[in-house]
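Aggregate trends can hide what the representation actually does to any particular protein. In the encoding step, the backbone of a single protein was reduced to a row of integers, each denoting a local shape. The record that follows shows the chain in one-letter code together with its fold in token form.

***
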Amino acid sequence: STRVNPWTAAASSRVRDGYIAVLERGVLRVVAEGFYFTNEIRLDAREEWLYIVETTGPHITRMRVREGAQGVALSDRELFGPAHLGGFPDGIAFDAFGNLWCTLVMVDQLIALTPQGDKLLLLDDGNPAASKNLLSHMAA
């Protein structure tokens, strides 16, 4: 998620030191970096795209997955869905229709991003005033 120790300092900031690494033949190799608090990753059903949760982004990025002579490579980095999800993305999972479900922690919401990247609010159990205050504080 971050190289900052303790990690809680990075969680309350906009530091971009998150990375993705692969373990190949017993060697850990960084294949992408510069993420806002990398949290969770998921492959799509075809394993063509890797979806990356950037909790303090707060957004989801995706990168194309390729196998090459040097092993796994990631390319074509792009934002998936809104640039600001309205909360802090955490856990993600795909459903059978290709929608990417995502929890937004601290604002108590469950959303889905359609295959086209449109945001659908599925559950909102948050306190709007408290959520607005938190998001304003984090944006400062």
Notes: The chain is about 10% helix and 50% strand. The helical segments are 7-11, 128-139. The mean pLDDT is 93. The CA atoms of residues 36 and 57 lie 5 Å apart.
